[in-house]
Amino acid sequence: MNAGQQQLDDVPEGDLHFRVPAAAARLTGLRHALSEWAEQCGLSEEDRDALTLASYEAMANSVEHAYVGQLQGVLDLRAVRDEEQGRVVVTVTDYGQWKPPPIDPGSRGRGLPLIRGLTPDANITPSEHGTTVSMSWPISGA
């Protein structure tokens, strides 16, 4: 973890919750922490890789799209193991407003389809207070 990326204190044991400035420089440390967490949860290597990549893409989208025209915003990354449902759930939340996608995105605009292709369950929930991307994967052997 980089300095300034400390897990919040009010997190149940075994879960992750980081609140950091929405800056690209913060994402690598978050990605590594999330990958280690997914391994501890017992996810298969394939699901760990999918979880890490999809989550990284969601965080990158928040950094790039949520705070256009603002100095800087905040990004929340939460990861929980839901034993009752037999799954892990990762949410990425920002508190900005995503800019509308261009009519012709060119070589861009593949992030949300990538996220949806990497998880069996993905929901993108925009609101006037920000956007939350929620993704889940089954726990191996659950």
From TrEMBL:
Keywords: ATP-binding, Kinase, Nucleotide-binding, Serine/threonine-protein kinase, Transferase. Signal peptide: none annotated. One of its GO terms (molecular function) is ATP binding. InterPro entries: Anti-sigma-factor_SerPK, HATPase_C_sf, HATPase_dom. Residues 119-142 are annotated as: Disordered. Residues 20-137 form the Histidine kinase/HSP90-like ATPase domain. It holds the Pfam family HATPase_c_2. Residues 122-142 have a biased composition (Polar residues). This is ATP-binding protein. It comes from Actinophytocola gossypii. The lineage of its organism: Bacteria, Bacillati, Actinomycetota, Actinomycetes, Pseudonocardiales.
